[in-house]
Structures
1.
Amino acid sequence: MAGRIPQEFLDQLLSRVDLVEVINTRVPLRRAGHDFMACCPFHAEKTPSFSVSPRKQFYHCFGCGAHGNAIGFLMAYERLEFLDAVEDLARLTGLEMPKISGDDGGLSHTLLEWLIQASRYFHQQLREHPTRQRAVDYLQRRGLTGQIANAFGIGYAPPGWDTLSRTLRQHGATPEQIMSAGLASCDEQNRLRDRFRDRIIFPIRDHRGRVIAFGGRALDGGVNPKYLNSPETPLFHKRSELYGLYEARSRIRHLQRLVVVEGYMDVVALAQHDIPYAVATLGTATSTGHIERLFRVVTDLVFCFDGDTAGRAAGWRALDVALPFLRDG
Ligand SMILES: [Zn+2]
């Protein structure tokens, strides 16, 4: 990844960033001579051995050896990917990110905007649509309060072939954008058909909290499939995304453990019962991509699936996939 951003840009970025400021807003620092000190955020300690040098723009921990510049600090502390850390610092310093070869940044940006609009629309329908009561009843039967439903941005896709598409078109979206965002497809007569109709909607957020896809649960018992997700899009790759991970991380500053469950309702229902650290894969079996991602966030993973045959098979599979990642200790 690093090679895709010009070194000149990284140099310029790091020369503009003040590492002391970046760290101090997250870990309060105390001046000690030329440097600044704090208790290390990367290991448990009572006397400070974490030092930050404003001159060298480096941090170093004499206890655990953690060491790096502003990009490294954000990656370690906020658990960001390299590009995301660079982007955050660029925003902080007012530098414009360079165009990365092969990047479809423009398209992604546009799609993200329409996904936000769609998310607002679904959320509003849950409050205002004439047939909203069925959705509200379902959520209440599952024991959810309005507060939890809000925290997860739960919404309602009303019945009708193109209610969302029409709304987005009125706001200026092109049919191509609506389809690329995974919100609708085109029928033989070239009409847009919403993907989600008469369903409870669960926005799927990426690790930075941006809505990148949706999951929908059918309200009518006879409808197949009962659960439907957005298709693969330039933004949504279901084999590596985890529902609830962003929400868990934003609720708990230093997550110790994550519980992997089968579906969105499990995640939301556990949060309702004060277990706000569950995540779910999105209609796929646990993959190495998932495990890698989860182990970057916590060292303690619990898999909790249904007790039926399918659930047990999923449990064994998760164990198989996770074993190669285990290390001594
Ligand atoms: Zn340390």
2.
Amino acid sequence: MLRIYNPISRKKEEVTPGHGRTISMYACGPTVYYFAHIGNMRTYSEEDILKRVLIHNGYSVKHIMNITDVGHLVGDGNIGEDKIAMTAKKEGKDAKEIVTFYTDAFFSDLKELNILLPDKTPKATEHIKEMLTMIKNLYNKGFLYKIRTGMYFDTSKFKEYGVLTGMNFNKMNENLIAGARVKREHGIRNTTDFAVWRFLEDGNNWMVWDSEWGRGFPGWHIECSAMSMKYLGETIDIHCGGVDHIPIHHTNEIAQSEAATGKKFVTHWFHVEFLTVNGSKMSKSLGNIYTLEDIKKKGFEPVALRYFLISGHYRQKLNFTFEALESAQRTLEYIFGFVERLTSHMKFSEKSNKKFIDFATDAKSKFFKSLDDDLDMPNALSSMHLLIRDANKALDKNALSEEDIAKVLDIMLSFDEILGLGIGKKIVEEKHAPLDKEIEDLINERNALRGIKDFAGSDRIRKLLLDKYKIIVEDTSEGTKWKKAK
Ligand SMILES: [Zn+2]
């Protein structure tokens, strides 16, 4: 049973589906005006771990992630330009081109990081009707007011406003005013009020739609409320996102969704902490915002980045450095090396090593227990590494039977259902890598020479296979085996 931390009750709570055996999971997706950075990828990778653990626990997961292609303003609040419109202008391109290019880039990043794709990725621009229906509902219930720039949600009318932040409405407003973090728009009633619809009439050919209150485009927050409701219903089992979404985006999603339906919007919140770079927050001015492309250009495998991103606890900050990434890549090579050793080991003990198998089974159950406890990945990984260490020792002594080794391999594959490093795929690729005709002929020729005890001849071919084709041949009791040299 998976328990995750609830930021409202501040306790770990068991995740249970609202309906049957399906967990509804909504993840705030990207605003497609630029490449996602590695901090965003940390959030999506941790959400992927959550999803894989739920699947491992026998649930099916209905996973929806929105694509924000309009309405997200620079600064996340009410002021500033639309991020996509701004990029289009800057790059001298059509907004549609920007959206298509960065949406494709986003999905390609997810795939390279072995992130299981959502069931649906609805786009904001294709759900304007649903947003306007929700806005109308909020308007009829008296939650909205109109000012020059748009239709605003009156946050003083929603009595639980701010619940996710641990502050109430008054405290949130006081803090915002004291910190002068938000420039108040003329006519706005409370500093925390936010636009659900922004007016945009002329002088701009950016995407605008008609509404009964005036032409314009939706606010960023209303997009998630309207799309999650369309695909997952009025109450979602799990809503995910980065911790940066807590004070504005998710707080406003709760307010407008619950005001509209009178029902609880989300049963479990799942917030992933920040990724820092060299101890600092990522920022343009520090030039420390990296994308997956930057990581690849430096010679790292995407899956090494995945391993690094998932190796911390999702509720703790994780600090990225290239040294840490190098260490992740080395660990990954060590894990793959171990799996390769399991699949190519040829000296077996005759009887099963019961003591070791009990230890391995225990390591497996500890791995999954740690994950069930609020996704404690550092603990889960340490169980895996203890298993690898002791299995290596046992292999050194040829103290495992063929069945024991198969069991350890099975456990490694079950870990990888969660870790998503591609261990299974790697084994399949190695075992079934097609053998060149030329190599096959050489191996056969070598076998024939061995048959007539021409060992000088067979050694010559062994050397040729290694030097020219990087193939290592080994003669075992079960015949000649070969593998690719590193
Ligand atoms: Zn959202």
